[in-house]
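Data card: per-record layout.
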Amino acid sequence: MAAKGMTTGSRGSSPSTSRVVNSGRYIASFPLLCWMKTGLGVSAYQEDPAARKKTDRILVYKFVNPGVFSRERIKIKTQRLQSPLKKNRRLAMSKWKVRIALAGGLLLSFAILLGDVVLGVFSGKREPQAVSAGMRSAGADSLLRPEEAHLVKLFEKASRSVVFITNTAVRRGFFFDTSKEVAQGSGSGFVWDKKGHVVTNYHVIAGADSVIVSFDSKTSYRARVVGVAADKDLAVLKIDASADSLYPLSIGTSNSLKVGMMALAIGNPFGLDRSLSKGIISALGREFRSLTGRTITSAIQTDAAINPGNSGGPLLDSGGRLIGVNTTIISGSRSSSGVGFAIPVNTVRRVVEQLIRFGKVVRPTLGVYNFSDEQARYLDVERGVVIRNVVKESGAAVAGLRGVRELRNRRFALGDVIVGIAEDAVDDEDDLLNALEKFKAGDKVKVSILRDGKEKTVTVKLQGAE
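The structure for this 466-residue chain is written out next.
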């Protein structure tokens, strides 16, 4: 039976001059007509000439039984014929391949080792396990300048207190009685105490149906609003978290701040949680307006990058102490322009303590009702706050302050015009409120007034009011 691509030759054909290689049970020959003689007989096979032209390969046939060659072609292995010169060249090339492979292996090993060292220095995550944590820390710190090492430790400690705040609203379906909760804004905040109080800006949570507070540990809590001070753009939230998981910030003071001191802002700009930016205090005593239109005074100006999402986050000094709450920026593109403002920590402390205690801001008041600034200007009073009425038995009444009064000829006389509180000049209603906020209920303050064109000073005991 002839194999595929083969024809059976007849006995008696002329013998082949090709070499015959006999290896064990396999016989290989050049693709020519050849005679292969065995102990039991002679068989001849001829390769397909077309196949011979395509390749110079040795065909291998299986020796099945003594004296009988299988006519079935079984390809076991092929090998291209090579001249001695080609074999030497191949051997030389093999040696070069070995050398190149060895060199490549060495380079790869060096690259891996170098990568481990570099990543180990900057991330501390690819150090060999045999190296202790203390040695890893020492190795990383040794590559940092003292200021950098200080900032790294400061951020690692302070960032635990910073939270991501999501303002959510419930949206109801138009056709079906369904509803879903969607995020309508976000901002930053920070842990105030171990009781779970969190401080942020009022505008971060304004209009929220629900507020979610998220920590770096990916733990989230649904917060309760304790109180808000819209005029000061501050709000206090409460979360039900264990005291062990809360890390309040150290509270600093506004009194010792100087222009040029380092300022660090931590927050979630554009939703990128817990980002640190570094700058300086650019100016003190700045003013900006809250959502209600009231002026927030004594604000801190900083060039530390503050962007949307930083609102409500802490502004820290070089010791990691809270010195302000990042609130707003001046920019035409709604991104950092190097002019950001923070509510000073002294104002924050006073407002937050009242919100926690009373759920609202208890303002000290003189015990008077006044005309608005527009009404005062209509009455030709260009400077000061005009008293309209005096509350009975109030501190103002005891001090003898006067409101508008009717004269005998049915004409009216203007009330006293307040032009100063203690050492602060009062030009309008905003000045009056800001001046009084420096005191608390029960304090006695000197009030400068204009009466009948003459200025005089009286002492008034302040009382509490919403």
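Known properties of this structure: DSSP finds nine helices and 30 strands in the chain. Residues 84-123 form the longest helix (40 residues).

See the next section for split statistics.
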